[in-house]
Every structure is written in structure tokens, then in C-alpha cells.
Specification:
Helices cover 28% and strands 25% of the residues. The chain is an alpha/beta fold.
């Protein structure tokens, strides 16, 4: 007998299906997800044709986007048919299809795969969706597909919550099962009003229903409706165009006017990810750094563990960290077995306090096992190939990166103009453009994004003071002869990566120190000894006795980087505001990622790129507040 679903966050209850002749049917609502005879035709004729999507796709301009919103996701059939139409009829230049779908009871991955096997003609796109399908966690999930030409935002949860917290304006709506009997939640007064907020004059919709109440309701919020009989489907379709009373129009504003040229200052992991993201969307990008090559500062380590420490309480801070973790795991998958090594990661319960924290974490939360699960010492040893003192939390989708190499790879995009080995001497606005001067060149751009880590405060124009701080972190390059190599990342007070390199010269990166009051840019023996002490407390059985001798630390190699963090240890990502709360038009920050930059950077680069291009936000409004740049100003001191 199936165990009852836990209501603890963040997992969400999946759809319960019964199958009849290979067709999935909802156990809760009693209706089939599609017809084997008409399912794909309903998507193509009932939704795509009635919204005239193929012709409209062809007209999307360079670096532009088109936004389709749907009242459900189900098996993804409507989305996949729309994706195929975009591939066949969309523009040949760089442009983005956004598809936003709300689903209260998402399918499990196994059910999704089984359902889509009914449609082999969708195999070229369904396989990529299945490979990227998120864990069943409530909230918003951004999937980047087709090399960035298609972006799917899936919201798992109540429609009212989705429409309240997601930031987008639709060009077209697909209203599936939009009838009071089947989908009563969509018919709440507040929900209908919020659908209106996500429309603009000219937004179209299509609904596969003949009910008069649907037509009257949609007319009441500003749609000019028309009923038509689709002979291909042998059923009635409602279609409409949003033509509201302009004086009474209230819509969700987009963040900014779309821009074409962006200067990104800083070629670390955040800057390179953002530059690449924008270039793929069709923006002209200039990447600037004082170093001679990308990935030279804190992002230049040989190895970096990709993880976050999720809070015992599932609050907004934990939700942001989880969203970043899930997005980054999907993003890095395209670099699998080259620059990304998803070995799995163990967060070791290495001390009494950490054991207690993990116990409370498990008691208060319900996470899908494909995201994380508690493991005993024996299980942990089998998973990591290491001799351990305790168990911990196992993250099967995590692992380690080669961040320095990844930065260089990202910066190779043909749409990125690199200005390396040059420092910014002056930055100001002129004629609606930002003008940046280096030692020997001048650069103009519509917008500037400062991604310069701990050097970011010095680059911000004006006289304000900001609550950023630099934290020195030294890693130790541990030869395989001095420490047993695990097969997966182990982290606690320090992290230990699997050994890496050519035979006979394999080493593991161990780190990192957390030095608040040390600005020495060179590795020191004392910092190596600190790393060894902390590692010994975690995994004493894995270390060679030679490490106890003082002269060994003198011979070890390593690297120093300076992380940038904030007063509340949360990143900043978005437009910069002055001390009076006024936005400095065209100036953005992406920094303060601290020691979890490899995890946060892909997700926050996606969010900042959304804002710069005026496209739907990957980060819900409820979480975006935690990233606001205005909180970085030092509080004013009242004069006597």
C-alpha cells in the first residue's frame, strides 16, 4: 500500500494516475490527459493555430522573445508542440521562446516518460524535456532548452500563488481544462484578476471549451471573444484578443526596456556566465577584466565543490539556495565529464552539532530522494569509497567543477568581445549610453553589470559606501600520496574533492580557509596547516601520518582567492539603487556570492539576463527581494 504523502515542504504531491490503453487518466479529477486520436492535434489546431503562433513566431526580432503562458502543464504535450512550432517557424536569428506553465499536481518523471512515449513524433524535443525535468519541489523552476532558444518556467503549486509571484506578460495564453468543473481553482476571483495582470493589449488566448461561462468571464476581464468550430478536432474552441479599457488597465510591468549592448565587468564565474547567457539571447556583449585571461581570480581554482547548505527551516533563504542548486545542476549538465563531474556529494555529519542539525533538518522537511537523502555511515562509505566516521546527507546530483577552465570556455562565444588585461579608469553616462574608459580604449554600452567580486565596491560610481566584505580563502593541493581519494565530494568543515590529474601527479583540492582579517594574496604554510587540521577532524582515517609533520605543510602547493560577501551573506543581483532609492538607470550588480558562487552564479546570471532583456523572471518576486541591491548601502548616520 502506498504511503501517504508528507505535507512538509518543499516536496509537492504528484499526480496520481491510472492508465487505460497507454493513456494516463487523473485519479483525482477523473479525466484523461490526452486523447490518443486527437491529443497532438488539439495542441496544434486548438492552441497553436487559434493563437496564430507560427506567423507570430516568424516576426520576433533579433534578441527578442515571445511569451506563451499555460494554465496547466500535464504531460507537456502543449509545450512540446509549441516548441516544435518555434523550431520550424521561429526566426533564424537569436531569439527566445518563453513558455510558462502552472501545475498543481505534476507528473513524476517516470509517468512523464511513459506518457510521452505515446508520441514518437515528438522524440527530438521530448527527450530533452525528460532529461531536464525538475525534482517535484513546489515553486518555480526555470529550464533552459535548445541551447537557450527555449526557456520553460514550470511553477509547481497553486495557480493563485504562481500568478502572484511570477513576473511576466504573456503574448498568448493556452487555457487547457479551463472550466469550473475540472479546474475550480482557476475560477477564483483573485486568480482571474491576476490572469488579466499578465496580459497586455493584443495578448491572445485559446481555450478548448464551449461553455458560455468561460466566454463571459474572459470578456469581463477585457478579452474580445469568438467561438469557432474546429472541424479537424470535431469540437468547439474559444479564442480571444485582449482589448481592455486602457484607462482601467493594470498589468505587471516588465523590469526594463530590452537592451542590445551590455558591458560586463569581471571575468570570473558570475561575469562569464552572464556574458555567455546574454550573447546566446542575441545581445552584443563586452567582457572586461584587469586580468589577462578569464577565470584568473577566485574562480580560477583547479576544482570547486558545487553545493549549498540548506537551512533547517524552509524559509525564503533556503528556497533561494535550493532553486540555485537545482538550476545549476541542470545548467552544468551540458559540461558533464569534461568540466563538470557529477560524482554526487556527501555533507558529512562530522560533529555532534552537525549531527543534531541534520537530524532536525530531516524531521522538519520532506525533500525528494533524487535531490537529497540521509545516509548511514556504511551507505556513505559505499557511495564515496571513503573510510568515514559518520553518515550525512547525500546529494546525488552534485559534484565538482573545473571553474577556471569553464570561465575560459564560456568567454569563447562569438558574441562576446573580450577586453582583458585592462582596468576601468572611468565610468559615466552620456547620451543615454554608459561610457567606460580603460588605459587605451573607450567602450560604450546600453547597460553595465559589475561582476567584479570583492573589487565591485570600488567600481560603483558615486560616493556611497556599501556593505560588502572580502574573505580570503586558501585551498590546498593535496597529493594523492597524502590522502586517500574519495569517488565523490565530501564536505563539512572543509571539502575534499576526488583526486584529479594525470597518473602519478593526481591531487585533490581541499579548502578553503575563511579569513576575514587577512589580505595576504599568497599561500601560507599556516593556512595549509589549518586546512589539514579541519580535514583531519572530518576524515581522520583517510589522511597519511606524514601530514602530522610540520615540514609537509611547507611543501604543499595551493591557491588564494578573495570571495565577496555581504553583511547578510546573501548575494546581490539586479539594478543598482542610490541611497535615496532611485535607480541608476542601466547599472546592475551581480556579486556577493561568497563561498557558494559556483552554485548561485548560473541561476543569478539567468535572473540578471532576464531583467536586462525585459523577459520573464526566473526568480519569483518573493525571492527577488532577498537579492535587491538597495540593502547594500550603509545606513545613514543621523547628524547631531
Amino acid at each position: 500500500m502506498r504511503a501517504p504523502f508528507s505535507t512538509s515542504p518543499p516536496a509537492i504531491e504528484p499526480a496520481e494516475l491510472v492508465w487505460h490503453d497507454g493513456v494516463p487518466k487523473s485519479k483525482r479529477f477523473g479525466d484523461a490527459y490526452f486523447s490518443r486520436q486527437y491529443g497532438l492535434n488539439e495542441s496544434r489546431h486548438g492552441f497553436i493555430a487559434q493563437n496564430d503562433l507560427k506567423a507570430r513566431f516568424a516576426g520576433v526580432p533579433e534578441a527578442g522573445s515571445f511569451v506563451v503562458a499555460a494554465s496547466g502543464f500535464g504531460t507537456g504535450l502543449n509545450f512540446l508542440a509549441t516548441w516544435q512550432a518555434w523550431e520550424s517557424c521561429g526566426p533564424s536569428h537569436a531569439a527566445t521562446l518563453h513558455f510558462i506553465a502552472i501545475e498543481r499536481f505534476p507528473l513524476t518523471l517516470a509517468d512523464l516518460e511513459k506518457a510521452l512515449s505515446c508520441w514518437p513524433e515528438l522524440g527530438d524535443v521530448s527527450g530533452e524535456l525528460i532529461a531536464s525535468y525538475p525534482s517535484l519541489v513546489r515553486g518555480a523552476h526555470r529550464l533552459v532548452l535548445a541551447g537557450g532558444r527555449v526557456r520553460l518556467t514550470l511553477f509547481f503549486g497553486h495557480a493563485n500563488d504562481a500568478l502572484e509571484t511570477l513576473r511576466f506578460q504573456a503574448d498568448a495564453w493556452l487555457l487547457d481544462d479551463f472550466t469550473p468543473a475540472v479546474n475550480p481553482e482557476m475560477w477564483q476571483e483573485t486568480t482571474i484578476a491576476r490572469i488579466r495582470q499578465h496580459c497586455k493589449p493584443g495578448t491572445t488566448l485559446a481555450a478548448l471549451t464551449s461553455e458560455d461561462v468561460v466566454r463571459r468571464t474572459l470578456q469581463s476581464i477585457g478579452f474580445r471573444m469568438q467561438e469557432c468550430d474546429d472541424f479537424e478536432l470535431e469540437r468547439t474552441v474559444q479564442r480571444g484578443v485582449f482589448q481592455p479599457d486602457i484607462a482601467a488597465l493594470t498589468t505587471i510591468e516588465t523590469s526594463e526596456k530590452p537592451v542590445r549592448s551590455v558591458a560586463v565587468i569581471g571575468a570570473g564565474i558570475a561575469g562569464c556566465l552572464l556574458a555567455n547567457n546574454l550573447a546566446r539571447r542575441g545581445c552584443v556583449v563586452t567582457l572586461i577584466d584587469s586580468a589577462e585571461e578569464a577565470g584568473s581570480a577566485a574562480s580560477g581554482n583547479l576544482q570547486g565543490a558545487m553545493y549549498v547548505k540548506l537551512g533547517v527551516e524552509f524559509n525564503h533563504q533556503t528556497q533561494l539556495a535550493l532553486s540555485a542548486l537545482m538550476f545549476s545542476q541542470r545548467y552544468y549538465d551540458s559540461y558533464r565529464d569534461t568540466l563538470w563531474h557529477p560524482t554526487g556529494l556527501l555533507q558529512l555529519a562530522w560533529s555532534d552539532s552537525e549531527q543534531d542539525r541534520q537530524r532536525r533538518f530531516i524531521e522538519r522537511n520532506h525533500y525528494p530522494e533524487d535531490l537529497l537523502r540521509p545516509v548511514t555511515r556504511l551507505e556513505a562509505e559505499n557511495l564515496t569509497g571513503a573510510r568515514l566516521e559518520s553518515g550525512g546527507l547525500w546529494f546525488p546530483g552534485s559534484g565538482w567543477l573545473e571553474p577556471g577552465k569553464l570561465c575560459k570556455s564560456l568567454a569563447l562565444h562569438s558574441g562576446i568581445h573580450k577586453v582583458l588585461g585592462r582596468s576601468i579608469k572611468h565610468m559615466a553616462t552620456s547620451g543615454g549610453k554608459w561610457c567606460l574608459s580603460t588605459e587605451d580604449s573607450d567602450i560604450q554600452a546600453d547597460c553595465v553589470v559589475i561582476c567584479a567580486g570583492h573589487q565591485s565596491p570600488q567600481l560603483i560610481p558615486g560616493s556611497g559606501k556599501f556593505r560588502f566584505k572580502a574573505i580570503r580563502g586558501q585551498v590546498t593541493h593535496m597529493p594523492e600520496t597524502l590522502a586517500e581519494s574519495p569517488t565523490a565530494v565530501i564536505c563539512g568543515a572543509r571539502y575534499l574533492n576526488p583526486a584529479y590529474g594525470s597518473q602519478g601527479q593526481r591531487l585533490a583540492v581541499v579548502g578553503a580557509t575563511f579569513d576575514l582579517r587577512n589580505d595576504n594574496p599568497h599561500p601560507t604554510a599556516e593556512s595549509h596547516r589549518e586546512n589539514i587540521r579541519e580535514l583531519s577532524a572530518m576524515v581522520p582515517q583517510m589522511l597519511s601520518a606524514k601530514l602530522a609533520t610540520s615540514d609537509v605543510s611547507e611543501q604543499l602547493a595551493g591557491r588564494v582567492g578573495f570571495r565577496c560577501t555581504t553583511h547578510d551573506y546573501q548575494p546581490v543581483a539586479g539594478p543598482l539603487f542610490d541611497t535615496e532609492g532611485q535607480e541608476l538607470e542601466g547599472l546592475y550588480l551581480l556579486t556577493g556570492l561568497g563561498s557558494k558562487g559556483l552554485t548561485y552564479a548560473p541561476f543569478l546570471a539567468e535572473f540578471v539576463a532576464d531583467q536586462l532583456t525585459g523577459q520573464p523572471f526566473a526568480v519569483p518576486v518573493s525571492l527577488a527581494k532577498r537579492l535587491a541591491t538597495g540593502r547594500m548601502h550603509l545606513p545613514k548616520v543621523a547628524s547631531l
